[in-house]
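Support case: user asked for a sample of complex input and structure output to validate their parser. Sending the pair below.
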Amino acid sequence: MITSARVFFVGGLTSYRALFTWLSPWILIPTFIVTPLFQVLFFAYIGRDAGVADDRFFVIGNAVQYVAIPCLFAMGNTIGNERRQQTLGLLLVTPARRIPLFLGRSLPVIANGVAVSVVALVAGAALLRVHVALATVPPLLLCVVVASFSCTGLGLVTAALALRVRETAVLVNIVFGILLIFCGVNVPLASLPGWMRSVAGWLPLTHSIAAGRRASVGAGFSALGGDLGREALLGLGFVVLGLLLLAYFERESRQRATLEVF
Amino acid sequence: MKTLRLLAVTWWLQVKIRSRSAFDGLLSLLWPLFFATTIFLLYRAGHQAPGALLSAAVGASAMGIWSATSTTASAALQNERQQGTLELLVAAPTPLPLLFVPITLSMATVGVYSLITTLLWGRFVFGISLHVHAPLLFALSVLVIVVGIGMFGFLLAVASVRYRSSWALGAGIELPVWFICGFLIPLSQLPGWVRPISWLLAPTWGMTAVRHSALGGSVAPALLACLGLTAAYAVIGTLVTGRIVDAARTRATLALT
Amino acid sequence: MPVIELDQLRRTYRSGGGIRRRSGREIEAVRGLDLTVERGELFGLLGPNGAGKTTTIKMLITLLLPTSGTARVLGHDVVKDVREVRRRVGYVFGGDRGLYERLSGLDNLRYFAELYAVSPRTQRARIAELIELVGLTGRENERVEGYSRGMRQRLHIARGLLHKPDVLFLDEPSIGIDPVGARELRRTVATLRDQGTTIMLTTHYMFEADELCDRIAVIAHGELVALGTPAELKAMVRGGSVLEVEVFGASDTAIDTVRAVAGIRSVGLEERGQAQLLVAQLDPGVDVTAAVLGALGDTPTGRVTSREPSLEDAYVQLVGATT
């Protein structure tokens, strides 16, 4: 048990540090602070022009959606690094440690997502003069954490696909775009055609964004339980799917005896 | 005359280079489409004000021109350096700005593919009527905004040459420019503190011209403002180019080795 | 008037330099080089890695600013008359880079032809002529990304000649090229010189320098070590002929015994796969073949050759003396 916990925390941190070559402010600030903030502003003003919802709607929607960038990319990089260091195969081979290992890998990623989201929330709310009551902060924060977890799960799936297809950046950007359109980020779910709403239900972020909006106007933990529970389960589902895909691709690459050893 | 030919030929060859990457091409078309789709859905859900959808369509399609330029322009010189061609460009007797401008101009040109795709997307998926008020002026305005964005890209390219991760800077200003230059939102609706910055950016005026030519409104002043700023960027960019090349020749950073 | 003149040309690098770091070691890559190259010469720059050859060339083609000293190409100062120099020189370097991968060879030449203001009327003919000269006919419409190293090198040469430069700088042009390709390259270079182009060539390959160059400057640690025709340089090798003995598994004691033989100046052992080559530099006018074979004792030997000092021997001796 203790070993697993250690694997969980330490393993996660060490692999994450390796990927943090983008710790340079020249990358951090534009990618994690400027872009999400302007995404909030951009859509908030469009919403005003189109007469849809209010500023609060767009602040929460976009600030939460943006966890996709750190979560998807960081997970992609983490897995990519494992593969480059040729430790990925080893990880997949030890089933007893598999889940804690990968969940450990995801902890810094989730933290990264939460940090980015919070910054965008605070800055966006400040610039647009959206009032965030102190009491709403804890439930709101929980929504962000769950969203980040769920998106990290999707990040694992994306990372597995990216290893196969070898185009991480393109894949991540496409997934980002899909999330932007479907998950009720900027377009209220009620305004979406039925089929899009159904798809949205199976994507990360949809439930936590809805919960987040309710949290910001005073909904308490119990009221959010349903949505957040669903979101967390989805996240777990994505993690399992991601692990299965990784194992499958690894077996496939061994069968095909490709030079790109897993 | 010779200069014009030089610019035209080098621009054309650069467009060829940029048009030949399958994967980059796919993403450069898809990325603005994601935003366009969100925008169209939003406007459909809200206002059905006359012209709102058309305005959104031209705005969203012009966003693609900027997307095609922002990240690649900021990394343009790093790219040339890695390819080993930067040295050869400097070693040539032609003034360097004349060689750099076609590079970023070609990026903006390739953005026209995205413009067309987004317009068609709006037309066939969202049923937005593309009946523009003044088609010839519209075409001219698109031309001018391409030039304006291309020259803005030139400024970006030379300004970010010292930064190893210059691509991040370019990517970082992609959305800010969409917002500040009023691609979707007319300047009058933007916050006060933004407007002075907007006025200094050529794409703002190019976008105004595009929108007015599509929906009605005076186009000439906006065109002139865009071209004027473009000329100013050319001058500034030329001065900066001279400085960075001299610095590179002193510190031996033109090549990777 | 000499075509190229270097006067106390100096170039210092600050290593570890960057945006913020001020401190760092200073490396003197070129230390007060004095040279002249006459019109129509094929001039070679020979030297080990890091000797300053490429740095010198880059200063002459205006890509690098000298720290001090002057250089003139065709009478134009490389710092003050930059445009004039650039118009009249061509620059070709070895390696894979320096071309637009996604363009065809032909488009690459068109691009550089524009850069060098080759008039539109003559461009097509000139490009065709050059493609033929470098042997790329039939492949010019393929994208460069599919070219082999040798083809890229040939395209580089074509590129360097587009504007009919008076001076051509070749920086290690045959690196990584197969022997046949390299031979054709040498032939092309010799032809160019015969046609009146002044050429400055840097190379690692002794036989290339020996075969092609009218004069050679040996450079080491940024300084001129020797200057002269290949024959003059070979004559500088103090000593007589060179004795080469193929040996199989010579022990250290055997080598020491050989070294002790009278008339031997120096002994070197080179690995040649299964065998080794014992290279002995002899005093002038001695013949110690028998003595050497005797000193080797039971060590199995193969071929024995006696030859005159080569350029490589001269080079090794000249460069070795400076370390």
